[in-house]
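Lines hold sequence, tokenised fold; shown next:
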Amino acid sequence: MDGLLQSQATEKRKWFPIVAAICLLAAALAAILLVPGDKAKPPSAPPAYAANVKLTNVHMMTAENFIGSSVTYIEGNVANAGDKSLTGATVELTFKNSLNQIVQTEDVPVRVLRTSQPYRDFANLADLPLAAGQSREFCLSLEHISADWNQQYPDIRVIDVSTK
């Protein structure tokens, strides 16, 4: 009788690791399926007034700053084709590589030329609002662009505006 009890206990011990492993796998699978991950959210639609912000005569240049680093400038004209005063705008710059894959995305505020200075100085639109129907030179500056960039103009999209 003693041998029979010992045999049943040994058989139960053989199954225990298998049952425990199945339970752990089920718990891990449930955690993976039920816990939301960091999913890339699709780009949101730009605000309606963004269609009234027109960027024209866009060109790029690179210069060295006072500490010897390279800075890339994207300049052109920004026009307010709407009926409100434009007090802020942000653009999204998308840089691609030779395989047309995105290598860098930057959100940059639009800065406009301050004409009252004897030198070229750019200010935020909050400081120099753009009235309805008005246009002014703009400048976007970037400290770093990926080395994998294909040296072509980035895609430029107005993603945020503020008006008054």
The longest strand covers residues 53-64. The beta strands are 53-64, 70-80, 86-96, 102-109, 111-114, 121-124, 135-142, 155-163. The first helix runs from residue 2 to 34. DSSP finds one helix and eight strands in the chain.
